[in-house]
Design a protein that fits this description.
This is Oxygen-insensitive NADPH nitroreductase. Residues 8-159 form the Nitroreductase domain. InterPro entries: Flavin_OxRdtase_Frp, Nitroreductase, Nitroreductase-like. The protein is of the alpha+beta class. The chain contains eleven helices and four strands. It has helices at 3-9, 24-35, 54-63, 69-72, 84-89, 98-121, 136-143, 172-175, 187-203, 213-221, 229-235, and strands at residues 46-50, 75-82, 125-129, 149-158. A four-stranded antiparallel sheet has the order 1-2-4-3, with helices on both faces. It starts with a helix and ends in a 6-residue tail after the last helix. 25% of the residues are buried.
Amino acid sequence: MNPTIDLILSHRSIRQFSAEPIAPEQLDAILAAAQSAASSSFLQVTSIIRVTEPQARTRLVELAGNQPYVAQAAEFLVFCADYYRHTQIVPDARTGYAEQLLIGAIDGALMAQNALLAAQSLGLGGVYIGGIRNHPVEVSELLGLPHQVIPLFGLCLGHPAQQPEQKPRLPKALVVHQDRYQQTLDRDLLAQYDEQILAYYQARSSNNKQQTWSSQIRAILGKESRPFMLGFLQSRGFNLK
């Protein structure tokens, strides 16, 4: 339709990178694009930690579930929700609200998506790393995050050394609702999508598996999901009320 939409629709997660660095002017443009994202109430509650020390990268590989591309990527950025900066400006600021946690997570995600799209427009690629939330205390200590700053996710960026197949998304009819939420799930359409995902996993060039989307969701939602997270958030001054 146009180059911007074509770029968005071509998204693939890149997990293999060449050794070529990202030029400083490219990184500056990527970060400027990130900062240009919308910000709720203009609070600007996101900080980005650019991790360049090899030892820190190696440690983050371990903390994020042994994902080697955290160390191999040309750049690794950690997006954080940050109210520490605000409390330096307003020492008696009223923080700790669940809504403020939502704002921090949403603003951070908007900034990161801008960053990745900017990178892709420059011929680069990347992948988000939610695995840093496996060990949020250790990640916070490693990155020197003060109270009221929490790591949300990481972003690997670099020159792609792979061209993976594109993973099919849910049919629009299962995602977009007209006027009111349609509570009756179209199971025939879901079954068609499950077959599509099964065929995708069987045919892709790496990490083949025998799995539908429904079975994948059943496995993920059938187990605990970082049950320590609430305690961590509260220990950092988030989600207290």
